[in-house]
């Protein structure tokens, strides 16, 4: 109270309006966890102040603020040796640009702690199948096998679209006080400095490169951080709920694997699938996502119904062309030196091939075993 008594502006206002001023509420109690109703059932760590958060993460408060970087100093005054991320610019075959943001070891440890002790305790939506234990692209595609029609949509810039403010708001819904939620969100998000694009391929489309720089310069979920997949799924929960409800209303099935969305149903669904696709895009726009309309596909039984690299027409299977190429590569490795087949220069080529064979075995065990003969 002394600082108020000593403030000239306050004293002048008090002398003029003293009969109108009163104390509305004394803020004497420390901040407390105030989760939304459903979050109260989850066993989340109680972190009610910045000091407790720093202690929970094993940091000093100054270190905590540096890792969270709420003032975006890493973007405004980038110093490579002080940066929290390694960057790698990738160009997709479609011409789009993806930036891999790999956190350095200490920040990754903090993110893993948040993942294991907070995010993994929150149940995801049943329609989500990406980056979750016990779920995979196989469980993502399986509900759509043998359906009359399959609708596939793709979200544009899924991770960078999820802004830092949205992540902070999510932590507040878990009950964390505003200061704590902001710092947790800051640790899990990033704003990319201009210097990160110096190593980009100048053969990239300059317009798309410029758009990517603007998109990634805003605080967002970094693709490469261990917390990003879980946060993306959890922040998509409301969109998943709305889309699942829309699908049920027309007798369709809905699943999502990261930025890939799939709907399927009978001939009744086929008759309204075009209009249904428009409603899906509208919901996604309302939820803050963008649809890559060029990748939207309506696949009826007369064509190959493929999702996430798997065929779903009659039974779950590998795309024939991909299987034949892998089989030919293995055959050439036996007949010739394996080194001559490593066209993509994989550092662990044998492990790469074993992983591809294991993937085929997961989807179709019989075909996978034939590759090992």
Please describe the structure with a list of short key phrases separated by commas or semicolons.
373 residues, alpha+beta, five-stranded antiparallel sheet, three-stranded antiparallel sheet, 18 helices, 10 strands, 12% strand
Main sheet attributes: strand count, strand direction, barrel closure: 5 strands, antiparallel
Q: How many H/I helical runs? A: 18
Helix fraction bin:
40-55%
Count the beta strands.
10
Sheet/helix structural class: alpha+beta
Mean pLDDT: 89
Strand content range? 5-15%
What does this structure look like?
It is a single chain. This protein is of the alpha+beta class and 373 residues long. It has 18 helices and ten strands. The strands form three sheets. Strands 3, 4, 5, 6 and 7 form a five-stranded antiparallel sheet that branches. Helix 4 (61-68) packs across helix 10, helix 9 (164-173) packs across helix 10 and helix 17 (349-363) runs antiparallel to helix 18. It is globular. The chain starts with a helix and ends with a helix. The model has no long low-confidence stretch (mean pLDDT 89).
Outline of this structure?
This protein has about 375 residues and is an alpha+beta fold. The protein has helices at about 1-5, 10-15, 50-55, 60-70, 75, 105-115, 135-140, 160, 165-175, 180-190, 205-215, 230-235, 235-250, 265-270, 275-285, 320-335, 350-365, 365-370, and strands spanning about 85-90, 95-105, 150-155, 255, 260-265, 290, 295-300, 305, 310, 315-320.
